[in-house]
Write a structure and sequence with these properties.
The protein is mainly alpha-helical and 457 residues long. The chain has one domain: MFS general substrate transporter like domains (Growth Hormone, Chain: A), CATH 1.20.1250. Helices cover 74% and strands 1% of the residues. The chain is built from 15 helices and two strands. A two-stranded antiparallel ribbon has the order 1-2. The radius of gyration is 21 Å and the shape is globular. It is found in: Membrane.
């Protein structure tokens, strides 16, 4: 998690000890990849974060595996979609198939909003075991699926529920055990989504022609099972403690223009976020006419490029205000989406995928600490609630974006122009909505600096 400026830094550190902020892939947290964050009450007053040590770094390892099992699998859906369009679900439209991955991504974030209070109530072990079981079980059931509704229930609903239940408790515990090393700890964990997003598409492409769809998905499920076993061993050692659950809504936020535009911005940014990730393989295969191997590698390259995007916000957190990082990435992302229409060669598309991976990584990590700014969260007691409210909007956007783009694209003829323009316009709207909170934050910080200067002079 990034930290904001001024004397709020100290408040943020102490508040995170009480209210844990999770990062998606996003995106992280934060997602997509790009990973989505929330805040949770996870520590007692008597607990002193060790800020390192074997136990703390084991939690980072568990976080790495959780990210791989959540956002790593979710960001692989572009490979699944290309196969479904060509083979298993060839009688379904691109829009209908996109709903499978969109609902999966939506549930990872949306369920986390409710997983937070459950975690606060002391259901840590139950959530970890249930989430890991549902993730693996959903993958296994996907391997047996032969129709749209079966794939939707198994991969979209079951896997999405499992990922959403598992994601939040792990990140909350990592934040609990670290103070000054928290950014690098969460950053290392977040890299798991990129690693999973690189490995899974390549495995899917290499194994599917040789052993078939069913056994390929089972192999991926067995890898997820291995990760899940380690996750349960590490996190299962931590006994959940019942605490007061936080509120899901802060109605006062609805009367604050800066927060409203902030929430709208995240809605539109993630409305466009998954469109490239879901259609990169299909675009490469049918619009550029590349080989299937090359097309599947493009998704892996994109997920690999997100590693830098997921770590840069953590490194710049104390030098550049998070909202500026987010504004830059959203504007750059808008330019990339419009320039996507001019990509007609494999070499250019490789460069484009790397750049989009970077933008995707930033989009799922930068929003977390921005929400913690006093303009958007006037009291540290409502940071978690407001994070949940803002990411609730983003989860809805991520769910409906790709299906709409699928209806606008003609995959059979390789015509993606309308979907590309649509994605660019939507992200441009998201960047425009960021203007209000950016100005409000800048005014607040400058006024605060003037007050501090006058007090010291």
């Amino acid at each position: 998690m990034q930290q904001f400026h001024g004397d709020r830094l100290g408040e943020a550190e102490s508040a995170i000890t009480e209210t844990q902020t999770s990062v998606d892939e996003k995106s992280t947290g934060l997602s997509g990849t790009g990973d989505h964050p929330r805040s949770l009450s996870v520590t007692s007053q008597a607990f002193i974060p060790p800020n390192g040590g074997l136990e703390a770094w084991l939690l980072v390892l568990a976080g790495f595996l959780v990210f791989s099992n959540t956002w790593g699998i979710t960001s692989t859906f572009g490979a699944f979609q290309a196969f479904y369009l060509r083979d298993l679900l060839s009688n379904e439209s691109a829009s209908a198939i996109s709903w499978i991955g969109s609902v999966q991504a939506f549930l990872v974030v949306f369920i986390g909003i409710f997983a937070g209070p459950l975690f606060d109530m002391g259901y840590l072990r139950v959530m970890i075991l249930t989430g890991c079981f549902l993730t693996v079980f959903g993958m296994m059931m996907t391997s047996l699926s032969t129709s749209f509704y079966q794939v939707f229930l198994a991969q979209g609903i079951c896997v999405g529920l499992g990922e959403g239940i598992t994601y939040i408790p792990c990140l909350a515990l990592i934040s609990t055990y670290f103070t000054t090393k928290r950014p690098i700890a969460i950053g290392i964990a977040a890299v798991g989504s990129s690693v999973g997003g690189v490995i899974f598409p390549i495995m899917f492409r290499k194994l599917q022609p040789q052993i078939g769809f069913g056994w390929t998905v089972r192999v991926l499920a067995f890898i997820a099972l291995g990760c899940a076993i380690l996750i349960c061993i590490i996190l299962g050692r931590h006994k959940g403690e019942a605490r007061k659950a936080r509120s899901l809504l802060d109605t006062s936020a609805l009367r604050e223009p800066a927060f409203i535009f902030w929430a709208l911005s995240l809605f539109f940014l993630f409305f466009a976020y998954y469109i490239p990730l879901f259609f990169i393989v299909s675009y490469s295969r049918w619009a550029l006419g590349t080989t299937e191997d090359f097309a599947f590698y493009m998704l892996a390259i994109t997920n690999g490029g997100s590693i830098l995007g997921r770590t840069v916000p953590y490194l710049l957190g104390q030098r550049v205000k998070p909202i500026y990082t987010l504004m830059f990435s959203s504007i750059f992302g808008t330019i990339l989406l419009f320039s996507w229409t001019a990509i007609h060669s494999s070499a250019a598309f490789i460069v484009w995928c790397v750049l989009w991976g970077f933008v995707a990584g930033v989009l799922v990590t930068a929003p977390t600490s921005t929400t913690a700014h006093p303009v958007l969260s006037p009291s540290m007691n409502v940071v978690g609630t407001r994070l949940g409210m803002s990411w609730m909007g983003s989860s809805i956007g991520s769910m409906i974006g790709a299906p709409i783009a699928g209806a606008l694209a003609n995959v059979a003829t390789g015509d993606f122009l309308h979907a590309q323009i649509f994605a660019g316009v939507i992200m441009l709207v998201g960047a425009a909505c960021l203007t209000w909170p950016l100005i409000a934050i800048e005014r607040y910080d400058r006024a605060k600096l003037r007050v501090q200067s006058s007090c010291t002079s």
